[in-house]
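Lecture notes, part 5. Sequence design as translation. It can be helpful to think of inverse folding as translation between two languages: the language of shapes and the language of residues. The source text, in structure tokens, appears below.
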């Protein structure tokens, strides 16, 4: 794996605290750095460096000063660019394999605190009840505010079987929540599947990893062994924060015609201008055999619904966007996260690297996902009452210094108003959230899954109505989308 890290690309979001991070195994070339440097600013840097060394209240190590300078330079670019020290680089290597030591949370920042984007299923954080949207204010009694995200993540990491205490601010609680966790080696199975009822199957991908495509094929084989006459499939990508790009391409290719474009990227570097196809060389790992050769042929044509929400990001948006563009599946749920940029990791020394944003990615029809997300064909909220807690989530567009959407700049004002509307909705939902009981995806309490099954059976959808004033518009929109989607079920 070490050789792969000379130059690799990422399509995940947030920082990682014992959670897998997304990798694209093809490299993006580095630009020629032999260009004129701003000598005046370099002289200013040198002078400030000297002042710190000579005048600061206590001695400061040269290596620490330079490392912090590099880290600050990179992290100032956007929320997804960062300097990688030895520990971060090691975790990056491990994460693609679906096993790592940590708490099992994907995190970002908000107001100087560490914000939980999503807990990984069956992880210490998940079992302890840590929720998406939680703000970590203290780590082992040390205040988080004022720490860089890199420093905070370093404190969250640690050796297996060591304890860590988190103080959490939660919108639904009046007082801080204090949770003690034990770090552990997390072996994450990224694919779950089961028959919901005769003829209808559910497959959940919680994160895209190197084994995901092969694992998904095995799950589909088992489903068809249980019921050879499957009539419909629900692909669940809710709260899937992303993962390896080959995984996203392989999952898309499983349900699309051979060799079609899945996703494209565009950036300054010539090698960042790429198109990725539904071909084995774009999705298989080091094994020579194409894992999709074992896929039951019926999977190419089975009617599908893809479930997404505000926690569906990056690689999961690539899959949803591709299946939507080819009208292969009906996308249902709520608008996705909107992380549509590619980060490249360049290994600088044996133990350090840098991760910088190098490209935006686009769906087969050329749609840019960055800061916008995937809009579902059918808008279905999370609960039967229509009280969606999805708007309490942070999305890409909410992140400070986020990369703009290059194809929809004229719609920035419209999206800004959408965010104002969401903030107003948050105030109403914050009170309701105290009464809200989280459910397990794939369970009988899963409202969105029930609507997906209704759609596959041709039954009426129970449209969630967030506000009475929006009821008619939402209903008409969903009725129109239902007709269009039903007429486009064929691959």
């Amino acid at each position: 794996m070490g050789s792969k890290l000379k130059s690799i690309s990422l399509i995940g979001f947030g920082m990682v605290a014992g959670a897998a991070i997304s990798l694209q195994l093809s490299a993006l070339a580095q630009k020629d750095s032999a260009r004129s440097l701003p000598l005046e600013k370099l002289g200013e840097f040198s002078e400030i460096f000297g002042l710190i060394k000579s005048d600061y209240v206590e001695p400061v190590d040269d290596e620490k000063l330079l490392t912090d300078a590099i880290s600050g330079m990179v992290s100032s670019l956007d929320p997804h660019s960062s300097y990688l020290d030895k520990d971060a680089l090691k975790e990056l290597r491990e994460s693609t394999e679906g096993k790592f030591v940590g708490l099992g949370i994907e995190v970002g920042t908000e107001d100087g605190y560490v914000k939980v984007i999503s807990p990984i299923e069956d992880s210490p954080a998940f079992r302890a009840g840590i929720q998406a949207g939680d703000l970590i204010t203290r780590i082992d009694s040390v205040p988080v505010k004022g720490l860089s995200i890199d420093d905070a993540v370093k404190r969250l990491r640690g050796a297996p079987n060591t304890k860590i205490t988190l103080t959490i601010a939660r919108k639904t609680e009046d007082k801080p929540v204090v949770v003690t966790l034990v770090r552990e080696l997390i072996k994450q199975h990224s694919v779950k599947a089961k028959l919901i009822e005769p003829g209808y199957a559910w497959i959940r991908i919680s994160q895209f990893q190197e084994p995901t495509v092969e694992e998904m094929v095995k799950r589909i084989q088992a489903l068809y062994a249980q019921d050879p006459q499957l009539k419909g499939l629900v692909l669940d990508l809710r709260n899937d924060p992303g993962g390896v790009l080959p995984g996203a391409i392989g999952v898309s290719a499983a349900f699309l015609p051979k060799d079609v474009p899945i996703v494209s990227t565009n950036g300054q570097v010539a090698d960042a201008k790429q198109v990725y196809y539904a071909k084995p060389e774009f999705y298989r790992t080091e094994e020579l055999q194409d894992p999709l050769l074992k896929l039951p042929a019926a999977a190419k044509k089975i009617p599908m619904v893809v479930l997404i929400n505000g926690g569906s990001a990056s690689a999961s948006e690539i899959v949803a966007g591709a299946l939507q563009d080819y009208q292969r599946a009906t996308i249902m749920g709520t608008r996705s996260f909107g992380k549509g940029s590619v980060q490249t990791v360049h290994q600088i020394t044996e133990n350090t690297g840098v991760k910088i944003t190098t490209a935006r990615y686009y769906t087969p029809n050329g749609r840019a996902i960055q800061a916008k997300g995937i809009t579902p064909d059918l808008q279905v909220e999370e609960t039967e009452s229509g009280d969606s807690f999805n708007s309490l989530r942070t999305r890409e567009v909410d992140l400070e210094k986020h990369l703009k959407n290059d194809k929809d700049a004229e719609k920035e004002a419209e999206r800004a108003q959408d965010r104002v509307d969401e903030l107003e909705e948050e105030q109403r939902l914050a009170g309701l959230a105290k009464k809200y009981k989280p459910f397990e995806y794939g369970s009988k309490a899963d409202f969105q899954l029930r609507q997906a099954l209704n759609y596959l059976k041709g039954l009426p959808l129970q449209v969630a109505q967030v506000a009475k004033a929006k009821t008619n518009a939402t209903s008409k929109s969903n009725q129109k989308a239902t007709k269009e989607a039903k007429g486009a079920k064929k691959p």
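The translated text above is only one of many valid answers, since several sequences can fold into similar shapes. The domain at 102-187 is CATH 2.30.42.10 (Pdz3 Domain).
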